[in-house]
Amino acid sequence: MSTPHDTPDDSPDGGPDRTAQTADPTTVRAAGCVLWRRSPFGGELELCLVHRPKYDDWSHPKGKLKRGEDWLACALREVAEETGYAARPGPYLHAVHYVAQDRPKEVRYWAAEAGAGRFVPNDEVDRLLWLPPAAARERLTQPRDGALVDALLTALHLT
Known about the structure:
Layout: E1 3-5, E2 28-38, E3 45-52, E4 57-59, E5 62-64, H1 71-83, E6 85-100, E7 103-117, E8 127-131, H2 133-139, H3 143-155
Parallel strand pairs: 2-7
Antiparallel strand pairs: 1-6, 2-3, 2-5, 3-4, 3-8, 6-7
């Protein structure tokens, strides 16, 4: 069962040790962002979701940490790689823990406002959508990712 939650070392910057050093080498470490913007057509809040053809799923942009990489640096790199947009990081949201391919996985997420950029489809991400929060929650493939929508709204003081 997967539940999003904060772990004791989850401070706003991702914890006291911001790299992926851990006593459990089997845990896959990843980071991502709930990327948001104000719609160019009316100013309403929109969230960015990406479609990964390998898994045929809709999710928030995220990816695995590189050796020695900072959690937040990974999250921002993955946003740029998967969406083509620069991201201005905001508050740390929380970590999500689950099992993927028989290995424990930890993904830490930040709120991030979209900056300049343009999406170009690639092998890893073939589609991108900007959706209002309720529609984004419905489109997300994994129910656990919906809690991140709520965490973003709370962080932006919209709930």
